[in-house]
Amino acid sequence: MSEETVLTGASGAPVADNQNSRSAGPRGPLLLDDFHLLEKLAHFNRENIPERRVHAKGSAAYGTFTVTRDITQYSCAKLFSDVGKQTQVLLRFSTVGGERGSADTERDPRGFAIKFYTEEGNWDIVGNNTPVFFIRDPLKFPDFIHTQKRHPHSNLKSAQMMWDFWSHSPEATHQVTVLFSDRGIPDGYRFMHGFGSHTFSLISADGERHWVKWHFKSLQGIRNLAPAEAVRLAGTDPDYAQRDLFAAIERGEYPKWRACVQIMSEAQAQAHHENPFDVTKTWSQKEYPLVEVGVLELSRNPLNYFAEVEQAAFAPSNVVPGVGLSPDKMLQGRVFAYADAHRYRIGTNHQQLPVNAPRSPVHTYQRDGAMALGSNGGSAPNYEPNSYSNTPKQAPRYAEPALPLSGAAARWNQREDTDYYSHAGALFRLMSDAQKALLINNIAGAMAGVSSEVVQRQLQHFYKADPAYGEGVAAALGVMLG
What we know:
The chain is an alpha+beta fold. It has a domain at 29-133 and 187-359: Catalase core domain (Catalase HpII,  Chain A, domain 1), CATH 2.40.180.10. It contains 13 helices and twelve strands. The strands form two sheets. Strands 2, 3, 4, 5, 6, 7, 8, 9, 10 and 11 form a ten-stranded antiparallel sheet that branches. A two-stranded antiparallel sheet has the order 1-12. Helix 1 packs across helix 9, helix 2 (141-148) packs antiparallel against helix 3 (159-167) and helix 11 crosses helix 13.
């Protein structure tokens, strides 16, 4: 038997674990000393020039967020300070896996990224039109996206790559079920919901933290495309969603979404029966009902696509006082990866571009770099601490409350939680017979040409979610469930 080939990093050092990021305890935040994770994400961000590595094709519009309910007991963020208060926003929609020239009607999650231009700085929620995601550890993100792109040999999309990865990733079963359901191809961008997907936080003036999930409910209702119609539009009008959004706003038909949160206290999170920071799972709306916060409305198209859409940079690291992050491992990986991608794709000073520039004053000691705009700090000091009274100083009053951590630093096995299937099964059982049939047919069509080994492995995931699910896909494929 030939000797096993050992996986290494770019410097040649062997990799002991390529499945789990280092974290403080099984549920704790990730550690900056995880050089393998940082190398994978940093290299992945630099694989394409200059197109976005994911979410490459997008559409965007400007509008407002209007507060409709007082949530100041949960957040001290000034944008929530008064009912009726409005904040300017930019909302960018996108497909995830396709290139800039790809069709708007492909089966793919849709990006739903919001930039709030608040008086305390820019706050970004970088989400999707699905409440969950395929993976829950950012170490696997480059691997996953490679399977959604093109095969390195044929340069063609490969169903074998996609299903091979998913069949080895049982935690993806929930999102796969969403993707191949009737909601897998929205009828444009106006007729779909948006989600923050990750767990975020709100922080009150008293320093109390609550965990939250953001939901943006389309007030236009939900409309989806049948697979055959999606294929027809891909050939006749590949910019269908862009055209629909742009034309609707030009006609004065301004799309709206109702912004809501689910709220969980830190004590509730400690006692929760599942990891509340696992992005492959949802929170029960019976236990944590939706609380309306405001309304998003889009009312103005960008004047220049390149300047205001292609150069727009969204990153979950953009937070303001009163809102925050969580120990969600995928979110923490994105905090690094998104900002790093923008530094590479647009430039070190991408925040100075008009579409990304805060509407509030900026006082920083960052200097130089490509495309440094304005006076570049003029003659003011470029270091801190310093001896000058009129220079920016840190403000401890904005510090977040301490987040208790526990656990030894290690590469904790993300799959010790083996409940990959209950959420996917519950979703399947909620579907009507027609929706189940469409889901099964969509999956069977997408698995054409996939090896029998991968098919059988994937069928076991569907069966464990619900026996009727696995048996239905097997029957549609004309194979025996092994």
